[in-house]
């Protein structure tokens, strides 16, 4: 395996939040003890829903299973990161490649790294809008929020994992090249756009106590509820197996309010619940901003 030389730090200038508009509860303002200029972006953003729906429409225009299909998805995601201002890199391993970018800390020395990721591949028979263009779109949105977070105490590694559907290959390859002692938390997002009963409830898979506390605090700010489960079998498992503090976010998979189209041809953008998806993005962004911003 080719070791990944420390993912290059993006040097793109990080503009302060545009004109400091701040409307959302719990965000949009600097903490009282934050240095001057260290604003946080409001969770409510005009770009959020178009980013999420546009990403899903593009990714789920085809399945992402073959070598060619996955390569096209990697190219698209790399372009999206560049448009946001971050520098994408490929982490290639035998059989596949993850797309990675590091949003650098703005202070020295930085705190331990935060990893947030989602798998971009799908099974061959499905366009995978919910599984998992939805999680991919949420993680891309987090990258965008971070571009509007001018002060960052910790680097955030944004990772789009390859080949989850055939055995967590991308996540396992990536977890193998990172030292858990340098990482505060790993958050992976998988299937977050089905809410048949519209109760705005999510599941946290196998959180550590500290991570559960963080996600519950964020859920209170965003106005959603969370339940913990012991579901494994997706990307966070690859990290937990190697000693990382990891957690997964998903729709009510155990609770039964989960997409009936999983791994089927019907998992299309038409079945995505955009309101719920938007809540998933705000929830994840709130957790990561709280971890990364002063
Ligand atoms: Zn999945």
Helix percent reads 25-40%
CATH structural architecture: 3-Layer(aba) Sandwich
β-strand percent reads 15-25%
Main sheet: which strands, in order across? 1-2-4-3-5-8-6-7
Q: What molecules are bound to this protein?
A: zinc ion
Work out the number of β strands.
8
- Give me the CATH superfamily: Zn peptidases
Radius of gyration: 17 Å
Strand-pairing-aware structural class: alpha/beta
Shape: globular
Instruction: Give the total of domains.
Output: 1
CATH classification class: Alpha Beta
Distance separating the two termini: 37 Å
Report the CATH topology name: Aminopeptidase
- Main sheet, how many strands, which sense, barrel? 8 strands, mixed
What's the overall average pLDDT, rounded?
A: 91
Poorly predicted residue ranges? 1-26
Element-by-element helix/strand order = HHEEEHEHEEHEHEH
Counting H and I runs of at least 4 residues, what is the number of helices? 7
Keywords:
294 residues, alpha/beta, Aminopeptidase, eight-stranded mixed β-sheet, 7 helices, 32% helix, 16% strand, binds zinc ion
Characterise this structure.
There is one protein chain. The protein is an alpha/beta fold and 294 residues long. It has a single domain (36-292), classed as Zn peptidases (Aminopeptidase). It has helices spanning 48-59, 67-84, 129-147, 169-175, 209-222, 235-240, 274-292; strands at 89-93, 96-103, 113-119, 156-161, 183-189, 201-205, 225-229, 246-250. An eight-stranded mixed β-sheet has the order 1-2-4-3-5-8-6-7, with helices on both faces. The longest helix has 19 residues, at 129-147. It is globular and about 50 Å long. Residues 1-26 have low confidence and may be disordered. Bound molecules: zinc ion (ZN). The site of zinc ion has 7 residues, from helix 3.
